[in-house]
Amino acid sequence: MWPRHEPAPRGLRLFGGVQSRLRATLVKRAKYGDDAGADDMDAAFARNVAARKRYKGNELDPDAEYDHDGGLELFEAKKRRGDAQQQAARDKARQVASFNRQQKAEDACNHCFSSSRRPRHMTIAIGQSTYLALVPKGRLSEGHCYIAPAEHVASMRQVGGQFDSGAVCV
Q: Where are the domains of the chain?
């Protein structure tokens, strides 16, 4: 005989590890502040209005407000404090730090074309945006080689349409 009522489910169960991925995504967003959604914008707006008393009436109609970014200054972050000269100095320091970080990454990379650590004697062919080189250690088969972008990128997906010269090398 069939049971009259099915037992209540213990919780939502998703297939294929979706539940654990969702949980990991939520934890990452909470931990690193990765969720820059409408809630954060509303909180920043409320914080700026209440704490700094910066709100001024806005006489713009909604279309003009959209066109001229009316009220956007209330969403500014704390790092935008100071006069224009201080902001320019901070922006310049941020750009210099970013450039230095990029240079350090390129110098440490074994695959960057301009890196001193790249084994230059293993290069077979050079294209417009990629180069073909033998593997320095542990080849998988006879003639095993790799195609690397000439510029430093995190993955080949960032190369985009420039990969055509890499396809010619193969």
A: 16-80, 82-170
Compute CA 50 distance to the chain's CA centroid, rounded to the nearest angstrom.
32
Euclidean distance between CA atoms 91 and 89, whole angstroms = 5
CA angle 158–162–168, rounded 5-degree value: 125
Distance from C-alpha of 102 to C-alpha of 99, rounded to nearest angstrom: 5
Give residue 169's pLDDT band: very low, low, confident or very high (50, 70, 90): very low
Q: Which residues does residue 149 pair with via DSSP β-bridges, in sequence order?
A: 130
Q: What is the mean pLDDT of the chain?
A: 72
CA–CA separation, 83 and 34 (whole Å): 28
User: How far is the CA of 109 from the CAs of 16, 57, 97, 106, 159, in angstroms?
Assistant: 36, 54, 18, 5, 17
% of the chain with per-residue pLDDT over 90: 6
Q: How far, in Å, CA of 116 to CA of 123, rounded?
A: 14
| Residue in 124, 120, 107 with CA at minimum distance from that of residue 166 | 124
